[in-house]
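We append the chain.
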Amino acid sequence: MRRRTALSVVSAAVGGTIVPFAFASAPAAAGSRALPGTPTARWDFDERAGTVTREAVSGTADPVAHVFDDARYKPDSDPLRRRGVRGRALYFDGCSTVVTAQGPGDLDASGGLTLDVWIAPYAYEHGIDGKPQALVDQHDPDAKSGFLLGLRRFGQIVFQLGFGDDLIEVQGSPDQPAAKGRWTHVAATYDPAARRLRVYRDGRLIGTATTPGRAPVLAAGKPLLIGRHNRSTLLNGEFRANMYLGLMDSLVIRPGTLDDPTAHKEHSDAIAALPGRRVPRPDLVQHRSRYDGDRHRPQFHMLPPWHWMNEPHAPVYFKGKYHIFYQHNPFGPYWGQIHWGHAVSTDMVHWRDLPIALAPTAGGVGPDGCWSGSACVDGDRGPVLFFTGGDDRLPYRQRTGLAVSAYATDGDPDLPAWTTRAEPVTEAPAGLPAGPGTAWAENFRDPFVWEEDGVWYQLVGSGIVDHDGSRVTRKHGGTALVHTARRPEGPWEYRGPLHWNDLAAQPEPGEVWELPVLLPLPGPGGRRSGKHILLISPWWEGFNRNAVKHTYYWIGTFDKRACRFLPDHDEPREFDFGEHFTGPSGFVTPDGRSVLFSITQDRRSEQQHAQSGWAHNAGMPVSVSLRADGRLGVEPITEAAGLRGERLARIRQTSVQEANRRLADVSGDLLDISAVVDPRGARTITLAVRACADGTEETLLRYDTAERRFWIDRGRSSLDPDVRKGVHGGTVELDSGRLRLRVLLDRSMVEAYVNGAHSLTSRVYPTRKDATGLRLTAEGGAARVLELDVWRMNGAYDTPVVPAAYDPPRPTDVDALPNHDFGTGDLTGWTVVSGTAFSDAGVTTRTDWGWGGPFYQAETQDDAGHHLWGFDPEAGGDDATGVLRSATVVLGGDGLVDLLVSGGNDPDRLYAAVVRAADGTVLARATGRGVEQYRRVVLDLSEHIGERIYVEVVDRTTGGWGHINVDDVNVPVRRQ
């Protein structure tokens, strides 16, 4: 058990006396108004370590919850602390950090109430479900009682106080927010004499509201939370919204009322007590060390320091530096609240983080999100950014905007500061003509912009539809809409669709094209070929099993005058053989190469994202070219070799067997592997990576000479049943009779490049520490290794961190619950006790539920993926009820039972439970979270080892979400 440490609270010294830092001594009361008195609760957050914070008045140690208190993929670590206004401050991460307190102490609010706190926000939440980001709250919206101090959209300060019949909210002036990146002192007060609520920012009044003439009602029975709304919205069944992101210092709750002179004086006195009479600059930098020891987090690929990213975009070269931007949610590892992250490099492989470049703003083009786009250098003023602005107030919600760097004034080639223009660049009006129909105005995004011969070209991803004025009546296919201008600000002239796919004949590119990219293709030796490559990511309005998995391309000619793309081949071609290379973005480097960036989707579940604290990363940038044989050339950029460290193997002109023997001492999960093999009659050539010596875990890269096919086999890549596996590949011709293979291995990343013409990008998630070996084998013939080199790889940001957390081995002296994963395709081994909710018809292999995303059922020995879906429309759907029971067994092993559960959230009437057979006592239970995607639940029943138990699935709920889904019920059964 790791050591937990809580240090004593240190208060600030004011005038030689130790007093709470958040306020100075109040002057004598004026009239009937009682000025703020002694605090009933105070949190200074001065601890340097540990998972508690001390409430100074009562001395209570309040727990600080944090995703890594009990980490899944890395060693446990404490919540983050940084320097505060004085002493220390607690860093709230926006998705998991919350203090559950026992305060506010002996508080009588009838004579007034004052709350104040120092905050330094990192980012503003969207205002999900109309709720504020809570700084501190103990309230009950239904009973209209209690209080909440928080932030609404764009940092607007708000204070709510309940009076039983009314929940009154005072809002600070929108132009006086709690600014990002600086310390702000926020105070809120209730004045019963004036019947007013007031909020103050840095000692100045910024908002008032009238209250009823009766005393407020506190919500003493509700938890007091710091950093999270106590009615927070649950997102995707995993993530809590309405949470604070940033530093917090010295939170105080006091009886009494703050007036304007006192608020001003208290703030002035607090500033005067600081060294140099200055508020320090907050340290909000998000350090990557937060994830140290994570066994799956890549080390030499570009990824944000924290949380969630999607596609990197807008690569641009300026003043000796490469810049890349990326879709980013600073609040957590989930989709939404999109900002533009920013990183800079001198070689496209070693990266340095920069501040967020673009964020939603109240008066901007994208108040509801800054989505993907591109960059282009505009002469002396430097790069300009074109982005998709989301605005939910508009009928079509999407348009493109422009942002300009501060380079012209600050001269900083890092380009850390950007200003967005208030006016949109391009929009899609209703009825915009496009080929056989009109542009799908609701889908108008991802501008790709370049300048050529004084003309600016802009492609915008969209679709082509027929529309009757109220709805879409037919979908023709995806497209990229072309606009041209003489300057970035426009005016932009619409020129029609660049190209489009006919859904009836070519469904693969989807109903809408996202992230269209058009790049010139250099020929052999870098010479101009006159050809271009058009790449797109397909999008469908409803669920499609191929969504967010593939990138398609055409090679052809760009007609600049007509603004049309003329493909050399009708059928779109898949760019990458895996299911992880998506979201392309590209540019032309100063030396004339066309380089693509991409997002490597990690294909993990929402639960896995929540447990890891991060999601997705970029792929290795690749160079694309036109080969002499007319095929597309694809290779990692030459700069990738600059990441190489120690050479672990150099093998020349030998048999596969001898090469494999020499690889026995070579291992690693950060490797660059380069091989040239002459098959010489071999049927297959296989390179195993991330392999255990006994083959328990291994990932196979295999070439079949007869089928001319290269593929990755992840069937044994992980013992974790919740990890996506599968086989993926495509047709590959040998290169002059040889197999040329380059493999980049980066923890969970596997990128294979074959014969300079194909790529295969995938993810693997081994659980064992020894899953780091390499093996090279061949079947038949006398294959010969002409070249084989292996290098250890260095990190893209710093020295790679060694993974330090692995799953403990499960008991091996136990049996499984009969038909634990419903692999028989029916309820064999289970008994329907009552009702119609559960039947053989409910056991399904469906991977999605028709209108949403994947179930993510277990991938165990049941290759078909059977699971029990509790929603059977033929048996009543949500209105059906019933009870299902497993066989009775004796609990053995370590007593840990785990299972996959999803569906409705009702722990009393809708659950899966472990029940003691002797008396029917429920020992542990789990319910869903209002989503269909499965999550793994672990029940610790170690105290009941040796008892006879069974698993019972109960559905006594009707109406919406009145069903429960179950799969992979792992009970360690004692062998008889």
Summary: The radius of gyration is 30 Å. Residues 260-272 form the longest helix (13 residues). The chain has four domains: 41-273, 312-636, 641-793, 814-974. The chain has four helices and 69 strands.
